[in-house]
Design a protein that fits this description.
Strand content of chain A: 5-15%
Low-confidence stretches of chain A: none
CATH architecture of the largest domain in chain A: 3-Layer(aba) Sandwich
Number of domains of chain A: 2
Shape of chain A: elongated
Number of strands of chain A: 8
Structural class of chain A: alpha/beta
Mean pLDDT of chain A: 90
Strand order of the largest sheet of chain A: 2-1-3-4
Number of helices of chain A: 10
Oligomer: homodimer
Amino acid sequence: MNHPKRTAFFISDRTGITVEKLGHSMLSQFDGIEFQLITLPFVDSVEKAREAVIRINTAAMNDAKRPIVFSTLILPAVHRIIEQSDALILDLFKSFIVPLENELGILSSHAVGRSHETGTRYSERMDAVNYALNHDDGGITRDLGKAEIILVGVSRSGKSPTSLYLALQFGILAANYPLVAEDFENHALPNALKPLIPKLYGLTIQAERLAQIRAERMPNSRYASIENCQKEIKQAEEMMRNAGIPMLDVSAISVEEIATTLLHLTGLKR
Amino acid sequence: MNHPKRTAFFISDRTGITVEKLGHSMLSQFDGIEFQLITLPFVDSVEKAREAVIRINTAAMNDAKRPIVFSTLILPAVHRIIEQSDALILDLFKSFIVPLENELGILSSHAVGRSHETGTRYSERMDAVNYALNHDDGGITRDLGKAEIILVGVSRSGKSPTSLYLALQFGILAANYPLVAEDFENHALPNALKPLIPKLYGLTIQAERLAQIRAERMPNSRYASIENCQKEIKQAEEMMRNAGIPMLDVSAISVEEIATTLLHLTGLKR
């Protein structure tokens, strides 16, 4: 079956990140339709709302199908203008804020851009990012004991992006430390890690997937060869198993999923 | 007015990140109510759904008020169990997937955890994270020309977390480079940056805010003193203005907002 292209808009009076993620996740439920995705952030005035309507209606004409609009607009004046466009409007606020008002017995603030995050929480997250940067890839070993979690594994198993994501998203003090040839030869964890075993979590990966990731960086290298990947993974898994370090196989999951799964497995709090 | 504490649950059959963000943003519309927030990710079986119902009903008894449940459950069998709990259920999928099915003329896949992100897109994001790590804080200057954006500014103006967020969230090759005393004495940009002026974007900040951020790190230091912050910011702004580098004031906005605003201002694509 041949479906025509459709345009989807994500409209917000703030950054649009929330509505974009939610919209993506809902559109991904519909196979076989090609969506053109357009995010319109900071639509916070009547003028910008009118510009948005022009873009929506132009897409409607070009596609000969009305666009899908996901919106998190809070300002009623802005929302009323968008509603008049030639689109299916899926309004996150109307669907949820009204029932919440009824349940909680108070009116919502209808303010633009409020967030529960306090200044303290925000500076915790930024401190965590700096910590993750300083303790990336075995960087500074001073203060390593302050880590809430230390990811270990072979090169390119996803340790760095996962640490940064844990820091940025959840404010968790996450370090990461590579396991390298020298450690395997010594049949021992790096010295800096030995007193910190309860904080270690291993990332492991299928050799085929690792070889593919490494080959994108260094094609045709020994580093990326399947034989070398198999050997390193086998040695790393053996070392982690002997030290009683739990392991997560990250071959088929994204950094976001690795991070959330680790929180779930370790009980670390967001 | 004294409102009782309420419990809110964010329930997902995947990581729960989307439903959590959306739920936070909606609850932040209700001032004066203290919410206890509980995320239940990976609720992907009938057994886990039953455990979730027990937790919800326990909260309902303890609070003497029914909890609010935000859900992105796709599996009908799991959803039906959660619906029987003693809570206000705000179901993101029912509110949006059904209208989308009608509009698009096909049934949704009702699959767990589909995502539009392709393998290529994902490895672009991971490459961007590695790039941002290597080019953090003026790190490696080789390959600096590959950057799509290079953030400049004084120490602790938010360059590092913003670069990492641009990389992790949007797959953008983002570098950052500090402006330091030596540059101000020379009245000239660092040599590595001179051929790359069109890629530079300045982050600037109010002196009071910078002093506060720096004091959290190094209280009572010259580095964190208001006089030193004022001086550095003045010199950095002058240098950026003379070089024709655009500037964004980040004093009152979060890293997520800085990143999205930069995309908006520069036209860089997500």
